[in-house]
Amino acid sequence: MLTAFSVILRLDSTMSLLKYCKVISSIGTFSPSLGVLSTRNSSWWGGVQMGPPDPILGVSEAFKRDTSPKKMNLGVGAYRDDHGKPFVLDCVRKAEALISSKQLDKEYLAIGGLGDFTKSCAQLALGADSEVLKSGRNITVQTISGTGSLCIGANFLSRFHSASRDVYLPKPSWGNHTPIFRDAGMQLKAYRYYDPSTCGFDFSGALDDISKMPEKSVIMLHACAHNPTGVDPKPEQWKEIADLVKKRDLLVFFDMAYQGFASGDIDRDAWAVRHFIEQGHNIVLSQSFAKNMGLYGERVGGFTVVCNDAEEAKRVESQLKILIRPIYSNPPMNGARIAAAILNTPDLYKIWLEEVHGMANRIIKMREQLAVNLKNEGSTHNWQHVIDQIGMFCFTGLKPEQVERLTKEFSVYMTKDGRISMAGVTSGNVGYLAHGIHTVTK
Amino acid sequence: MSLFGEVPQATPVAVFKLSNDFKEDANPKKVNLGVGAYRTDEGQPWVLPVVKKVEKIIVADNSLNHEYLAILGLPEFRSSASKIALGEDSPAIQENRVGAVQCLGGTGALKMGAEFLRRWYNGNDNTKTPVYVSAPTWENHNAVFANAGFEDIRPYKYWDAEKRGLDLDGFLGDLESAPKHSIFVLHACAHNPTGTDPTHVEWMQVAEVMKRRKLFVFFDSAYQGFASGCLDKDAWAVRYFVTQGFEMFCAQSFSKNFGLYNERVGNLTIVARDSDNLKRVLSQMEKIVRVTWSNPPSQGARLVAITLNTPELFAEWKDNVKSMADRVLLMRASLQAKLQALETPGTWDHITQQIGMFSFTGLNPKQVEYMIKERSIYLMASGRINMCGLTTKNIDYVAESIHETVVNVQ
After folding, report:
1. Is B234 a catalytic residue?
2. Which UniProt keywords apply (chain A) (predicted)?
3. Residues A89-102: pLDDT tens digits?
């Protein structure tokens, strides 16, 4: 028989707390600072654990809190000029002035984004004379920069690539690849890529792993300036990879976040993507304009599916729209307008090519200076990889304990895997960096 | 053989297809009463004067760059946006238990909230937790929650087609019978598509049941300021629920009230029990953001933040918003008056009783088809019209068309 007492015992703590709260609120005030109340239990979110800081973006936040005047942020891949300042490209400023003068409206873009942008975005990657573009067998949608593109791509594959759940990432890969694909319901696997003994490309290991991938698996390839290692296959190696991937009948997912940034030449950096397409691979491709146009916070990117024909591209397009609509409805205009203006206005395009070239060159110079400075510090290690690696990042080879010392003792911020963003290195601080690296590695 | 050989052609999103069909119509008298964007009396998009002003400020400011925002967005935007929803002097804000995530428009805010709830709301897997959306509701609500993994999305009674008003008994009944912990998506004001909002007393009844039955409050606030012309009035329901002690989400859109449609400016305001719970929630929100868009776009957020945080600009914005709301109210009054003058069969009071951008005319699908095909007046199959598509120049034609349609088509 239920007594009033046992009924009270049956009430869970939440219920009783809500009743308590109801009494309080009817008095007119509710103060959660009533310490006796277990606020975790009274909250929907009591079971929510504290999420760990993002391994990459968390570095910047730790850097911001550091008060040392010599601190260096070599974490996130954002370009800095030789004074360590963010760099707004001149072509971007000019494009903005152009756009501002047009007094355009702010009506919603189509779900797939700004047509002027998506067309030129595809052209930039595939080349103006690409047969794919001529036959209209690609669909390119505007995305929220590279992450947004990968998110759409991963979810598209998850929904429509029923033949396989497996995505093979190079070992290592950009830290955010894994959670993006996992969240989309794909299974993450890896193929050998970086050889720590040479700080270079493990070509034979990669081929070996690729040869064992089940047919129709998805293979993620970094088009250029591999993140985090800066190690890219050479053209002859790309050719062999392309052949093997075709033999294994794998679906190729290219991530191209640094076109122009690697070698300074946009066509050279897109060579692998174009080669695969010429070889008959119907690839999917993510592009970002965060780095090569310095449009980081504007979130400009593209996702392309190369299809069999224009009809298939239309079907795929319709499904991409269905995917995009419940995430953010349609993409932001500002950055896409800027990028489109640059890509489609010959004068601006010319300036852009020069500026991209300039950024890549500064990085190449910093690599050389870092290597020289390390030698001058008296380091006996082989730092050739600093020069051989390409793009924004350098995989120093530093171990986590050494990274920790570098951060604690020198206020040099980088990711635990030993990756540094060369973009954060300047002629003013390269000496200090070399000294720090030498100190923790000697 | 293509990997995508089996990909079926998806049906286009209705509201965008409508706009496309309108574009291709050659009839000079055509009227677009479809998509929910404000139009001036000349039928043109309107970039708010205050927005133009702030854009100039941004362009001229050489200290600004295009660097990444933080994962959760621009802090000045998030806090000022939340203040707009909850009120400057909200006790919840003072108690440090309000946080926010800058998102890609209202859609993005709903998406983030939905993703979070699916992972963390009531245990770690809420795929089976019922999500209730009003009948009818914005067509994308269903998809947002379904794509976030919710498998059980149900309607709650809302629109009474016969009396052309709120089905309060049905609404309360569904609240009473919903499984505990169900999630309810509530329209903060200017219900889309019906334009029918609960009164204050009705909201209080809704809140009482939701509190008692431990239902989760998820407000969708896309029209604050746009409904009555007054920001505070339009936020009454949201603020009332806060005073009732709810932990809740409010997805805010600045697309309409700032006219910043294509900049994708949204904010997910989170009211938690206390700052500790809030902190943990925000940390998990970051993880969801990171795999979706990493960090949000800066332009629109900067614009809104500068406006909200600069007194003269804030005042100017409120004026701009009021002028949009006033024009809509004028069109409502006009349309109703004309239909009455024409003695169009039926009652048309709902046109002026409803609020916000949309009106649920009550026209049935056959009548809608007639309007489109015979009169080149484009509206949603549900009978929803966007009042902003009406102008002093086309309102006679629209009124006559409605009249003709109602008389000739049943």
Report:
1. no
2. Aminotransferase, Mitochondrion, Pyridoxal phosphate, Transferase
3. 999 999 999 999 99
